[in-house]
Design brief:
Oligomer: single chain
Order of helices and strands: HHEHEEHHEHH
Distance between the termini: 37 Å
Strand order of the largest sheet: 1-4-3-2
CATH architecture of the largest domain: 2-Layer Sandwich
Strand content: 5-15%
């Protein structure tokens, strides 16, 4: 087996082990990083929804409810829940993987009622009032899903519609009935803002980054190996090959061999100089014998 081939096989084996270790560590790291990236995006979306709710409560609702033509009319646009949900629905046109819901234990609109797992999230906030954020994963029919949740706490403006049916706008009661969405108390956690995203998204992001990383490493390794092979061939293999040819010729009686050029002062150059002296000595000895 050629020396260069032996060297390449050894290096390839060592690098393959190294790449296996790097790939295992890198994949785990990239998945965690992608997960954090998706959660950060979800955080921005929740903050955007919260800003919409605040804007609706502080600026839009007072204008709507005090307008003379709206004194006895209920408009969903004056409800913070509605504003946040509609805004996020438009945001989903750019981010279709993300889902947003203001899940509530006792909502006016039954579409906002919390399902089993959402109820567990809300209960976690109710059991720990100081808890400001909840991150979790759950299984769905389409695969695992990652979610981020913030609590929804009632404010004084909420009680204008959700304390007693008699205090709520008549048109709202006519539309949704007097059974649901009432009995809320001040500073009570009644729901949660929840942004959900399939785990396939961070895994897809991590996979793209992982493939790019591994292709970069393999390409870099191939380029380094080619460079090392060229250097090894011209600095070591080729000079040794020339030494071998001259030694073969002298052993076959071809004594008129020119001295090999000596370049530099490294070990190969020293070996070449020593070989030249050895050839001269051997040639002289053979001629004396002849």
């Amino acid at each position: 087996m050629k020396l260069l081939l032996k060297f390449n096989l050894i290096v390839i084996a060592v690098v393959a082990i190294g790449l296996a270790i790097v790939s295992w560590v890198a994949h785990s790291f990239l998945v965690d990083n992608a997960r954090a990236q998706v959660l950060q995006q979800a955080e921005l979306m929740i903050q955007s929804a919260s800003s919409t709710r605040d804007y609706t409560t502080e600026e839009l609702t007072p204008i709507i409810v005090t307008a003379p033509a709206m004194e006895h009319t209920f408009l969903p646009q004056a409800i913070p829940f509605y504003g946040a949900t509609v805004t996020f629905a438009r945001l989903r046109q750019k981010f279709p993987e993300y889902m947003y819901k203001e899940a509530t234990l006792n909502p006016t609109n039954l579409q906002d009622r919390a399902v089993d797992w959402e109820t567990d999230v809300i209960d976690a906030f109710r059991n720990k009032p100081d808890l400001k954020e909840f991150v979790g994963e759950r299984e769905t029919p389409t695969g695992p899903s990652l979610y981020l949740a913030h609590p929804i706490k009632t404010e004084s403006s909420c009680l204008e519609c959700h304390s007693q049916p008699s205090a709520a706008p008549k048109t709202m009661v006519d539309k949704y009935g007097s059974t649901n969405g009432f009995g809320w108390k001040l500073n009570e956690i009644v729901g949660a803002q929840i942004v959900s995203v399939p785990m396939a998204l961070p895994i897809q992001i991590a996979s793209r980054a992982f493939n790019t990383l591994m292709w970069s490493l393999v390409t870099t390794f191939a380029a380094i190996m080619l460079t090392i092979d060229l250097v090894l061939y011209y600095l070591i293999i080729l000079p040794l090959h020339k030494l071998s040819i001259v030694a073969d010729r002298v052993s076959l009686g071809q004594l008129d061999q020119a001295e090999l050029p000596v370049r530099g002062k490294d070990e190969v150059a020293q070996l070449t100089a020593s070989f030249n002296r050895l050839v001269v000595t051997v040639v002289k000895a053979l001629r004396m014998l002849g």
